[in-house]
Design a protein that fits this description.
- The chain has 8 helices and 5 strands.
- The two termini are 13 Å apart.
- Strands 2-3-1-4-5 form a 5-stranded parallel beta sheet, with helices on both faces.
- Mean pLDDT is 92; it is low at 1-7.
- The protein has a single domain (11-182), classed as Rossmann fold (3-Layer(aba) Sandwich).
- It is α/β, with parallel strands linked by helices.
């Protein structure tokens, strides 16, 4: 299904916790629609010339959060850079209130809500996630899920429980919803 031609602010924005499948589903959506795929983590890595673990280690998390906000401001102020794109975001992008407002202004915001057992298995081999390097990954993920679920809920236009659904089906459901949202 194709999304109708862009006017403005017609991106699909994916939010949710680490391991919820934002990149996989985002690429699936991009393949299905032909819309460009943007990943905020990758854009920040490119801009800084460091990967996320190094950014956290050398510049610190507050600096990374400032980079996320700067990137969102850029996307908002340059609609042609993402006016009908698929935007996958870092799991903590909803922490700042101004980010939540910008995300909603970019288009249709979708929360990929995945339960703890699935998040745990999907992040098993994640070396590239500084916030999951604790000994007790389960406790860490539970804490993040509790703290952030209300923020995802208030940012998203649509929530999908994608714990047990494969990425192509998730993408299909999102496209149907996006079609009504943008109609
Ligand atoms: C983070 C999630 C990561 C990345 C960074 C911080 C978070 O993105 O932005 O490690 O705070 O949840 P993914 O959700 O794509 O793993």
């Amino acid at each position: 299904m194709m999304i109708s031609p862009p006017l403005s602010r017609r991106s699909i924005v994916l939010i949710g916790l680490m391991g919820c499948g934002k990149s996989t589903v985002g690429r699936e959506l991009s393949r299905a629609t032909g819309a460009p795929f943007l990943d905020t983590d990758l854009l920040i890595e490119e801009q800084v010339g460091m990967d996320i673990p190094r950014i956290f280690a050398e510049l610190g998390e507050p600096h990374f959060r400032a980079l996320e906000t700067a990137l969102l401001n850029y996307l908002r102020d340059h609609p042609s850079s993402c006016s009908s794109g698929i935007i996958s975001t870092g799991g903590g992008i909803v922490l700042r209130p101004e980010n939540r407002a910008i995300l909603r202004s970019l288009g249709f915001v979708v929360w990929l809500d995945v339960d703890l057992p699935n998040l745990l298995s999907r992040t098993e081999r994640a070396q590239n996630r500084p916030l999951l390097q604790d000994q007790d990954r389960e406790a860490r993920l539970r804490q993040l899920l509790d703290a952030r679920s209300p923020l995802y809920a208030q940012t998203a236009h649509f929530r999908i429980n994608s714990s047990e659904i494969k990425p192509p089906q998730v993408a299909d459901i999102i496209l149907r919803q996006a079609h009504s949202f943008f109609a």
